[in-house]
Design brief:
The longest helix is centred in the middle third of the chain and has 14 residues, at about 70-80. With about 190 residues, this protein is an alpha+beta fold. It has an 8-stranded antiparallel beta sheet. It is built from 5 helices and 8 strands; from the N terminus they run H-H-E-E-H-E-E-E-H-E-H-E-E. The radius of gyration is 22 Å and the shape is globular. Strand 4 and strand 5 (about 125-135) form a beta hairpin. Helix 2 (about 35-45) packs antiparallel against helix 3 (about 70-80). It has one domain (about 40-190).
Amino acid sequence: MKWFLFATMYLLVACQTPELATGVETVVYDLEPETRSYQDVLKKYLRSDTVFSNYETLYVLNVTAFLPEFQQAFKKMNEERFSELDLLKNIKSAPLFFVSIYSPHDDLNNLSNGKIWEFVLKVGIREFPVKVITKLNDKDTWSSFFPFINRWSSDYLLTFDIPDFDKSGAPDQLSLLLTNARAKTSISWQAR
């Protein structure tokens, strides 16, 4: 009986809400409706794949297309979370792709190495080589937008130079080809 009385008193004391500190306000992003809508848009433009060869993992790939709907959701989330930081301010060309890769083979983690990787964007019947590959080093900031970023991933922005891409509107379909000596991955998005 003493044990029951002790447990009941403990629960009553432990479950009381503490007084809020004056002048402190906390926003938990996971509970915000805006975050849920961002996550819904991210799911629409995110493609993930694990590539195997002879029962061995070659790489784990997460690619997000910055097409107009996603770019707008990203910009809104960026303004809400980091009002002073515009993560895409130096990016001028379109389209843009966020690529996160992990490979147990160190050479495959370096997407900037043109001797190992080739990137081609197919827009309709036209093909465009990658213009700029930017390695992202601020994992803490970027992981706020892309939950698959971790300490083992290598994260990049791929930009392509397609004349009048923004003016002509998004094409019906885009395909990003990621090629190396061991594998070729083709990722597609319905842009409209």
